[in-house]
Structures are given as structure tokens and as C-alpha cells.
Amino acid sequence: MDIDSLEHLLAIESIRQLKARYCRWIDTKQWQRLPELFTDDCTFDGMGWGDSNADVHAFVSGVSKRHATTISVHHVHPSEIVLTSATTARGIWAMEDFVEWQGPDALREGGTEKGFRGYGHYEEEYRKVGKDWKISFLRLTRLRIDPVMADAPPARKGQRQASPDWLERGRGAN
């Protein structure tokens, strides 16, 4: 594969920005925007709910229902990204997520747990569609899941809540 060094770096940076949007849009519950991050034929695996190889519609529907009453925090750490052609790539992201259900249905597992902290990896494939890189396959693997117990201190919201459109609007957004 012959790809210019600058194009190589730009592709990797575009994929990193794509993944950052994925985490932010999940945590700020921007369900209507989420599908634009994926190719039309993207499949998902290892989400812990639904069928393996779910499509984009099933993924967004499932994640929006599962996270409707949660406080979630998704972090990804430095990635390994390999371009497999000028328009395809593969990546691995170490990840950590925190999910805590809120409200009257918050308790799970017989009333002893109200969430979890998970650690693992996202294994992904990407495809360039027009000028944009998109996720064409997403698999979540888990190395460890720690429960958030029902008697854990209640969540405190941060001093300022996220501004979902801050990048587009700037300081006037919130």
C-alpha cells in the first residue's frame, strides 16, 4: 500500500476524532447524531445485549434504551490504528466505562447493584466514505467488570454539565 505520510497521519487523526465523538455522543445521549458515525452496513458485537452482529438501527435503539436513565462515562486510551488501504483501517482502543442507573429502576442483580465499571478494548474497522472516516465494525471486549453496589455513595453531578453542541457554537452554547 502506497499512501503519502501526511495522508496517513490525517487518516489516523480523523479516526481518533471519530472515536472521541462516539464516546461524547454516547455520554451526552445524542442518539439522533450517533448513526452518522457508522457505515450503513456496520455491525456490532459484544455489546452485552441484543444479537451479535446487530446493525446500526438495532445498536442505536439498544444503547439509547439501555442508557436512557444512566450516568455514563466512556474513556478510550491511546489507540493502535493500522491503515489496511487508502480507504480502510483497523484499530484497537483500550477502554474504561462507568455506567450507573438512576431513578426508581436503578437496582439490578436482585437489588444489590446499581451499575458497573468496565475495562477492556474496542476492536474496530473503519472505512472512508466520501471525505469522512466511519466505523464499519465495532466489537467490545471485556477484561474486567466491577459492580457499583447499591450502597455506594450517590452520584454527584459535575459543576457544569456538558454542552452537546459546544464545538459548533462555542461559549454561547451553555
The biggest beta sheet is recorded as: 5 strands, mixed
What's the CATH topology label? Nuclear Transport Factor 2, Chain: A
What is the number of helical segments per DSSP (H or I, 4+ residues)? 3
Q: What is the CATH first-level class name?
A: Alpha Beta
Our estimate of the beta-strand percent is 35-45%
Broad structural category: alpha+beta
Distance between the termini: 46 Å
Radius of gyration: 17 Å
- Percent of residues in helices comes to 10-25%
Which series of helices and strands comes N to C?
A: HEHEEEEH
Please give the domain count: 1
Assembly of the depicted chains: single chain
Architecture per CATH nomenclature, i.e. the level-2 architecture: Roll
Q: What does this molecule look like?
A:
The protein is α+β, with helices and mostly antiparallel strands and 174 residues long. The chain has a single domain (5-160), classed as Nuclear Transport Factor 2, Chain: A. 22% of the residues lie in helices and 41% in strands. It contains three helices and five strands. The protein has helices at residues 5-27, 56-66, 166-169; strands spanning 38-45, 70-83, 88-101, 113-129, 132-149. A hairpin with a 4-residue loop joins strand 2 (70-83) and strand 3 (88-101). The longest helix has 23 residues, at 5-27. The model has no long low-confidence stretch (mean pLDDT 89).
